[in-house]
Amino acid sequence: MSLGEFFNNQGIFFALAGAALAVLFSGAGSAIGVGIAGQAAAGVMTEDPSKFAKVLVMQLLPGTQGLYGLLIGFVTLSKVGIIGGSAATLTSVQGLEILAACLPIAIVGLISGKYQGKTSAASIGIIAKKPDQFAKAMLLPAMVETYAILALLISFLAVNGISIGA
Question: Which of 15, 33, 35, 164 could form a disulfide with 98 if both were Cys (CB 3.0 to 4.6 A apart)?
């Protein structure tokens, strides 16, 4: 596909926009969440550096949304032939379908990453006072993770369920 054909292929533009939104929004949610949790972790570390491993696990939990968005981005790029082949010719409707399929992980990744960070920060507070309650503290941000996983699943199924090609 020549560069001119690429720019005239509106469907591919919409599909690439979907992949970009999945990566950008879920990545932003993870960055916000990891930052929030990291601030709480740093506070605990100033008082008790021996709790490093436990607070690090809590800080890393909100990072998964970014990975989920990245996965959907790769799946989308592969689906439309940008990765591993030549770009498919998509109708505008097909491109919009792919864009819509990417939105669940984009939006839920952004929101859940932020709130998982807040929940992780609260759980880090539990670890600061009662380190023996680590397993219970980890369940709280894991509940937020559930919704990111559901969004990942629906985006994955939706992107793969869209028929493209001749």
Answer: 15
- CA nearest 47: which of 141, 120, 124? 124
State what percent of residues in the chain have pLDDT above 90.
84
Distances (CA, A) of 111 to 6, 28, 52, 130, 161: 33, 9, 27, 28, 25
And the tokens for 115?
A: 């709130």
Residues of the chain with pLDDT under 50: none
The set of residues, in sequence order, having a beta carbon less than 8 Å from that of 69 and lying 6+ positions away, is 22, 23, 24, 25, 26, 27, 105, 106, 109
**CA angle at 28 for the pair 148 and 96, rounded to the nearest 5°:** 70
pLDDT tens by residue, 115-132: 999 999 999 999 999 999
Please tell me the distance from the alpha carbon of residue 136 to that of residue 2, in angstroms, as a whole number. 56
Cα separation of 116 and 35, whole Å?
11
Which residues have C-beta within 8 Å of that of residue 150, sequence separation ≥ 6?
108
Per-residue confidence (pLDDT) for residue 6, from 0 to 100: 54
115, containing H or E segment: helix 92-129
